[in-house]
Each structure stands twice: as structure tokens, then as C-alpha cells.
Automatic annotation (TrEMBL):
PROSITE patterns: PHOSPHORYLASE (PS00102). It comes from Tropicimonas isoalkanivorans. It is an enzyme of class 2 (transferase). This is Alpha-1,4 glucan phosphorylase. Its main location: cytoplasm. InterPro entries: Glycg_phsphrylas, Glyco_trans_35, Pyridoxal_P_attach_site. One of its GO terms (biological process) is glycogen catabolic process.
């Protein structure tokens, strides 16, 4: 497409789709017009892919996820369709600012963090690899809340991404599926009819997901909850206006908001309803499609692979059994076998508080037939394994992890360490019974968004150096290695990073009114706020460093900017205190005339995908400092390494694999191993002991306790200080000393010529962390799916 063709398409949509003319159009209208012009280019390759997957009778992958953390879509589509020149040219021609238009798009924030973003990367990779697939989730009216700071405190505001027209979806009123809850069960022999007492409708909305070079496109189908019977005219006519609208409001509640907790809000009825709602709608849709193409349900596992992203869709097990056994008359044991061979389950956490459990009473009320089937599935499992231990049901609760394991033919962890720990801890017994069921698929990230699109300077350098093949074959980045000796390459590598830092510094100045020196180390920790991720350890180190600079302000300190980003779950009190402390510390440090040249703290509010795209390319240092054994994988860690930041990190999650690949000398390792953590925890005096041994740590904690960062309320941080001294479950104190050592090693290495070599090695050796590699692994080890044959560039 030429710039002038693009311009005509934009003008056409401006007038005929948006009903605006050039003289009255706002930035929103231009963005929508550009989006529709780009969308037009998506439709043909998308239809083409759909037609070919039907015609070829190809096996399809169904990815069931409560979350898809997509971010913006326009730039992604432009890049994958290679329309940058056309779009930029057209915008220039129209006298518009291209960058500004792209940034006008709100993020689609239909997820909390890593798990949701992984689902989005997977969707893009499945399209790039021409893997016939469909994503299924919920079309939340409100995605993850917007975060504001008020006097340093986190305030949550509703997120309204659907207030504006959403250019990328196609409403499918004809894809409407009835979903029931509650009611009673009538048993007929071993089978049963379920008569729900409450019904609503799941309506589909389809978003095309186009892969690299437009070679293939899959669909993301998100369900919206609609009332079965709209509005009650009789009541309205009686003047009862609120009651007339009530059923509608009630039904719509189901897809109203994303739960903002990224562990589990235990036991919430609405959450269980959301889980069943989208899972049941998706399964019905999948079976309908299957039955339109094939007539033998026994072949389901050959033609469909259904992936459960964590236990959130775990009700898929019993529901699929119910559809096959109760509704289609298949023998129970056979139904379980077919369901199991179709389903697989990804585990994303070992934290005990994060494993989903549902109260049997609640489950029985909402899903009476499913609870019966869960008992039978459990019994069958006990019979098959000769085990006498009840697995999926325990003291009045249904354990969704165990249920998912029993109902899946493959269960995967998301990094080598995490998979290993799964076998040794939560799933120890089940692993012994089914030793080949657990497999590892280390996470990855899509290089189209996380390098090509977010870091154009580094991308151009890479393409000029090794050609363009890396974009869909990321391991080609290895070809950069010989150039790491070449001083002109290294200069350009450093210049790209430096320019990204200047851009970020300008944004900090303009948007946050904080000035930072781009010569400083840009040290970044961005992720949800959690005790196990240990933002508070990073803060204590910052405070200790600050105190030391104050002791001796002229000692030639290496300047640093500590950058934090992340949201706390609204109900997670400790995490919210960490948010507030970070802001309070920033306030004191940034205004300290003795130290602010050397140390600043920046905490931009409302961390999201778009902000990550801005921060990661400008980072020198990536903070991956979770307590070993707690972070299942991490994926931010991969994005940083790919963009030439060095990691300071523990041997946790995928950090282990990153360090193996980029080599130990290009990684700042510190801290206890997962085994050492478990050992040390047995010593109840671990925190006190660590504090007694490290005067810097003691002083930092004392400074927090003293009210230095909260003079108006000196007791504000006693809670944090007490927790660290007496409890410290996540071993902040015991790892602090080694963390400090590693940080000073960073100071020593930064600014030396070798730093750029180390950074370049990180980029050159991170190719394995492409989500294309991850998806190939799922296709081979779990889904038994093949890419569509002969796909060409659009
Ligand atoms: C469950 C029930 C009720 C309410 C909320 C939830 C819920 C929601 C989100 C539970 C968990 C999540 C999200 C978990 C998550 O993001 N886990 C991360 O997954 C990444 C991708 O595998 C890993 O890289 C991270 O290590 C892991 O923490």
C-alpha cells in the first residue's frame, strides 16, 4: 500500500464511517479513521486463514484464558502488515503527528499482569506461526483499574476503555450461547438433566489477531454477558422503571469487571460465575464447530486441543464431561477419556494462597451437576490409580489445581525451575501417579512488540547488522555476537540505548516534572506489587545507598535513577503500604540537595503495557529480585534482556535460564537458592540475625521506622518495619547483604566500555525467549498440532 492509497482510505473512513470532515476531525477521529483503514487490510488475510483451516481440516488450538492483556493494537497491526511507511507517509501528508495518533489509543487492559500478557504474546505467536487457533476470554467492560496517587497513596479508578468506539472487534450477535446457573438436577440412571434456575446469554465479539507479515490470522473471541429477557415492558408501563431494567443490569454484571487481584480473591461467587460463563460458552462454541465438520465425537482430541491458562477455566473438565455424557449420551468413562485427551493445563504459581479452591456448598448451589461430576471424576481417578487419597475435594473445598491435573493429558510449568518444583511440591503425589504428565514450556515474549515495535533504534541497528530474519527467527540474534568486538557496532548500540534514555528523561520531565540525568544508571523494577517480588528490598537498598551518600556526599558516586512501576491489588494492604512508602521515599530523596544529583526515585503511576514499552528500551538494569522459588517464570525479565539491559537477579523462575544463556559474567546474581530459602526458613530468628549482621540494613529499617519519610505521621511505616524484623517470610533481610554487594558491583561495571559488551551479549543471546519458540514447544509436546502448510507473506 502506498502512502497516497493509505491517505485515501483514511479520508474515506473519516467521512463515511465516522461522519466527520477534515475541518472538524479531532485526533480521536483521525485515529479511528486510520484504524479502520488498517483493519481493512487485515480482513482478507484473516478470512483466508479461517478458510484454509476449515478446508484443510486442520487441528485447532483453543486457548482459554480469563485474561488477555493486549495493550494497544494499532501499531501492532501496522507493523505486522508492514504498513509503517504508508501510515507514516499518509499522516505526514495530512499534517498529523503519527506518534501522537498512536498514543491516543487506550490500552486494552483485560488482564492483571504476567499471565494475561503471556496469553496476548501467545495469540500473536500462534498467528505468526500459522498455528490454527482461537483465543477465548471475557470482554470486560472495565479492564484493570487505573492507578492514581493521592498524597502518595494508591487510588483506583475505573478503567473505561469501551467508552470510546473499539475499532478492532466485530460483534457477533449470531454467536449467542445460553448459559445457566443454579437450579436442580434430575438423574436418569447415571446420566442427568440439569435445569438451571438462572439463564443468561454469552454473545461473542471477535478480534482478528494478525501475525508477522500478515501470513496468517487467528481470532480472539471474547464473551459479553447479556440478559436472556431484556427489559420488562410490563413493569415499565406500571411505572416501575428501576425494576424494569434490573434483569438486564444483573446479567451484564457478569462481564462488567476484571478481578484486580493477581493471586486469588478466595471464594467470590461472581468470580466463579465468570469462570463458568466464559468456559461453558467457549466449550459449546468449540463443540458446535466440531460437530459441523465431523460426526464422531471420539475424534475430538484429534481435531481440537484446549489449553486452560491456569485453573481459571478448570470447570472445563466437568463441563466437557457433562456435554459428552449427559447431553450427547457418551459413556462416562469414555467421556472423561475424551475430555482429558483434549484438555491441558498450565500452572503459573506455587504460592499456596494463590491456588484456587471453591467451597463445595457454593459450587453445589451454582453448578449442582458439575459438583456431582467432580465427585465421580475423583472416584474414577482413585480407581484408576489405586489411590485411596481423595485429591480434588478436601475439607469442604474443590481444589481446582488437582481437578485440572486429573482432567488434563499434559500439565505444564512455565520455567525449568518452576516445573521442577511443581513435581516436588504441589503436585508431588499426582506426579508420582502420572510421571509423564508434567512437562516444561518456558515462557517467551513476542519480539514483534517487545523489540521491533517498542525499540526502533535498536531494531534498525540489528537489521542493518544481520538482516531482517531475526524478527520471526529470534535465535538469529546470535549473529550479532561477532560484532560485539567491533567498536563501531558497540558505539551504535550504546547510542541507541542512550537516545532511548534521553527520550524517557524528557517524558519524566514533561509528564512527571522530575528531571533525571540520562548519564545515570536507569534501574527499573516494573511488575505487580507483591511481597514475594520484594519491591521493599529494593527500596531498603535505595535508602541505605542514600544514607551512605549523605555520609560522604563527595565520594564520586555513580548516579542512579531508581524507577518503579506497578499496581497493588486493592485489597492487599501490605502492597499498598509499599506503594505509599515508595512515593514517600521518592519525595524525600528527590528533594535532598546533598544527594539528588546521584540518586532519584521515579514512580510513574498506572503502569501498563504501553508504559512498559516506553521504559524497557531505556533500561540499563533489570530488577528480578523475587525470593527464590516464588516467581514461576517472569516475562519482564526476558523483555529487558532482549533490549540490552543487564539483570540483577536471584536464581528464580526463568532468571535461571536467562543467566545460563547470556552467561554468568553478563548477569548480576545474588541471593539464596530456593533450597537455601527453605532451609533458612526453619530458623525462626533468620531476620533478626541478618539485621544484626548488617549495619546498613539495620540503619535502613530504623530510618523507615523513625518516620523520616512520613514526618507528618511518624508511625506510618511501623507495620513494614515490624514485619521485616519479626516475620519476613520472603527473606528480605537474609538476602539484603548480598543484594547490596551485587548493586555495588553494578556501580563498578557501569560506564566502563565493557558494560556495552555485556548489554549487547544480553540481546544477542536472548533469542531463545521468543514466544514463537514457546508455542512450537506447546504444539509439539502438548497440542500435537501442526502449522498450516504453505503460507506466504501477504
Ligand atoms: C484468581 C481467582 C480469583 C481472582 C483472581 C485470580 C487470579 C488472577 C490473575 C490469579 C492469578 C492471576 C495471575 C497470575 C500471574 O500473572 N502469574 C504470573 O504468570 C506469568 C506467566 O506465566 C509468570 O511469568 C509469573 O511468574 C507469574 O507470577
Amino acid at each position: 500500500m502506498t502512502p497516497s492509497e493509505m491517505k485515501n482510505a483514511i479520508l474515506h473512513h473519516l467521512v463515511y464511517t465516522l461522519g466527520k470532515d477534515v475541518s472538524t476531525a479531532h485526533i480521536y477521529d483521525w485515529r479511528m479513521a486510520l484504524s479502520f483503514a488498517v483493519r481493512d487490510q487485515i480482513v482478507d488475510p484473516w478470512f483466508g486463514a479461517t478458510r484454509r483451516s476449515y478446508a484443510g481440516k486442520l487441528k485447532r488450538v483453543y486457548y482459554l484464558s480469563m485474561e488477555f492483556l493486549i495493550g494497544r493494537l494499532l501499531k501492532d497491526a501496522i507493523i505486522n502488515l508492514r504498513l509503517e511507511d504508508a501510515a507514516l507517509g499518509a499522516m505526514n501528508d495530512l499534517g498529523l503527528n503519527y506518534e501522537q495518533i498512536l498514543e491516543d489509543e487506550p490500552d486494552a487492559a483485560l488482564g492483571n499482569g504476567g499471565l494475561g500478557r503471556l496469553a496476548a504474546c501467545f495469540m500473536e505467536s500462534m498467528s505468526t506461526l500459522a498455528c490454527p487457533a482461537m483465543g477465548y476470554g471475557i470482554r470486560y467492560e472495565h479492564g484493570l483499574f487505573r492507578q492514581r496517587f493521592e498524597d502518595g497513596r494508591q487510588v483506583e479508578e475505573p478503567e473505561d476503555w469501551l467508552n470510546q468506539r473499539h475499532a478492532w472487534e466485530f460483534e457477533r450477535p449470531e454467536v449467542a450461547i445460553d448459559i445457566g446457573f443454579g437450579g436442580h438436577v434430575q438423574e436418569i440412571g447415571k446420566r442427568a438433566n440439569w435445569y438451571p434456575s438462572e439463564m443468561l446469554i454469552a454473545m461473542g465479539h471477535d478480534t482478528p489477531v494478525i501475525g508477522w507479515k500478515g501470513r496468517w490470522g487467528n481470532t480472539l473471541r471474547l464473551w459479553e454477558a447479556r440478559p436472556m429477557h431484556g427489559f420488562d415492558l410490563q413493569r415499565f408501563n406500571r411505572g416501575d422503571y428501576a425494576a424494569a431494567a434490573e434483569p438486564e443490569a444483573l446479567a451484564r454484571t457478569l462481564s462488567r469487571v476484571l478481578y484486580p487481584d493477581d493471586t486469588t480473591e478466595q471464594g467470590k461467587e461472581l468470580r466463579l460465575k465468570q469462570e463458568f460463563f466464559f468456559t461453558a460458552a467457549s466449550l459449546r462454541d468449540i463443540l458446535r464447530r466440531f460437530e459441523s465438520e465431523y460426526n464422531d465425537l471420539k475424534r475430538l482430541p484429534q481435531k481440537a486441543a484446549i489449553q486452560m491458562n491456569d485453573t481459571h477455566p478448570a470447570i472445563a473438565g466437568p463441563e466437557l464431561v457433562r456435554l459428552l455424557h449427559d447431553e450427547r449420551g457418551m459413556d462416562f468413562e469414555e467421556a472423561v477419556g475424551i475430555a482429558r485427551n483434549t484438555l491441558s493445563y498450565t500452572n503459573h504459581t506455587l504460592l499456596p494462597e494463590a491456588l484456587e479452591r471453591w467451597d463445595e456448598g457454593l459450587m453445589g448451589r451454582l453448578l449442582p451437576r458439575h459438583l456431582q461430576l467432580i465427585y465421580r471424576i475423583n472416584e474414577l481417578h482413585m480407581k484408576d490409580t489405586g489411590s485411596r487419597k481423595v485429591t480434588a475435594v478436601e475439607d469442604g473445598h474443590v481444589k481446582m489445581g488437582e481437578l485440572s491435573f486429573i482432567m488434563a493429558h499434559k500439565v505444564n510449568g512455565v520455567s525449568a525451575l518452576h516445573t521442577d518444583l511443581m513435581k516436588k511440591t504441589v503436585f508431588k503425589d499426582l506426579h508420582e501417579q502420572h510421571p509423564t504428565r508434567i512437562v516444561n514450556e518456558t515462557n517467551g515474549v513476542t519480539p514483534r512488540r517487545w523489540l521491533l515495535s517498542c525499540n526502533p533504534r535498536l531494531s534498525s541497528l540489528i537489521t542493518e547488522t544481520i538482516g531482517e530474519g531475526w524478527v520471526d527467527n529470534l535465535e538469529q540474534l546470535e549473529r550479532l555476537e561477532p560484532h560485539i568486538k567491533d567498536s563501531s557496532f558497540l558505539e551504535r548500540f550504546a547510542a541507541a540505548k542512550r537516545a532511548n534514555k534521553v527520550d524517557l528523561a524528557r517524558w519524566f520531565a514533561d509528564d512527571l516534572k522530575i528531571s533525571v540525568d540520562p548519564e545515570s544508571i536507569f534501574d527499573v523494577q516494573i511488575k505487580r506489587i507483591h511481597e514475594y517480588k520484594r519491591q521493599h528490598m529494593n527500596l531498603l537498598e535505595t535508602i541505605a545507598h542514600w544514607l551512605e551518600i549523605r555520609d560522604n556526599p563527595n565520594a564520586g558516586w555513580v548516579p542512579r535513577v531508581k524507577i518503579f512501576g506497578g499496581k497493588a491489588a486493592p485489597g492487599y494492604v501490605f502492597a499498598k503500604e509499599i506503594v505509599r512508602l515508595t512515593n514517600d521515599v521518592a519525595k524525600v530523596l528527590n528533594s535532598d540537595p546533598l544527594t539528588s544529583r546521584y540518586l532519584k526515585v521515579v514512580y510513574p503511576p498506572n503502569y501498563n503495557v504501553s508504559l512498559a514499552e516506553r521504559l524497557i528500551p531505556a533500561a540499563d538494569l533489570s530488577e528480578q529480585i523475587s525470593t527464590a522459588g516464588k516467581e514461576a517464570s517472569g516475562t519482564g525479565n526476558m523483555k529487558f534482556a532482549l533490549n540490552g539491559a543487564l539483570t540483577i537477579g536471584t536464581l528464580d523462575g526463568a532468571n535461571v535460564e536467562i543467566r545460563d544463556l547470556v552467561k554468568a559474567e553478563n548477569f548480576f546474581l545474588f541471593g539464596m537458592t530456593a533450597e537455601e530459602v527453605m532451609e533458612r526458613r526453619k530458623d525462626s530468628g533468620h531476620a533478626a540475625e541478618a539485621i544484626a549482621k548488617d549495619s546498613r540494613l539495620a540503619r535502613a529499617i530504623e530510618t523507615v521506622r523513625s518516620g523520616r519519610f512520613s514526618p507528618e505521621e511518624p508511625g506510618r511505616y511501623h507495620g513494614i518495619a515490624d514485619n521485616l524484623t519479626h516475620h519476613d517470610y520472603f527473606m528480605v533481610c537474609s538476602d539484603f547483604t548480598d543484594f547490596w554487594r551485587a548493586q555495588r558491583e553494578v556501580d563498578g561495571a557501569f560506564g566502563k566500555p565493557n558494560w556495552t559488551c555485556m548489554a549487547a551479549y544480553n540481546t544477542a543471546r536472548s533469542g531463545w525467549f521468543s514466544s514463537d519458540r514457546t508455542i512450537r514447544g506447546y504444539m509439539a509436546d502438548i497440542w500435537n498440532a501442526a502449522p498450516a502448510p504453505e503460507v506466504e507473506d501477504a
